[in-house]
Amino acid sequence: MYLSPAQCRAARALIAWSEDDLSSASAIARATIAGFEAGTLSPDAQTLQAMKQNLEDAGVVFIPENGGGAGVRLARPASASIDTDETETVQYEEYLKNDAPPGAGG
Fold this sequence. Notes:
DNA binding, mainly alpha, Lambda_DNA-bd_dom_sf, 434 Repressor (Amino-terminal Domain), 4 helices, two-stranded antiparallel sheet, 2 strands
């Protein structure tokens, strides 16, 4: 588990959270968050995990160092539920009209 100050700032920006919002969500003092993000404070692993977990719960995905640098992105929203019940036939009224020219058959 790694969380950099830059990732924390970027994650908050993605979801439009202030330091106060993260503080409320994670029950961590705003001064601790501000100090961490400024690079003047090194919180313990439990505190970093709590911040990261709350940001993830809010929709942030943390990207590990993979040669291109560590980062963050928004999670892909869950796709809308699609009804796949193939036992039911649905006919839409607008498709029931015969709009073919006379003599077209069918």
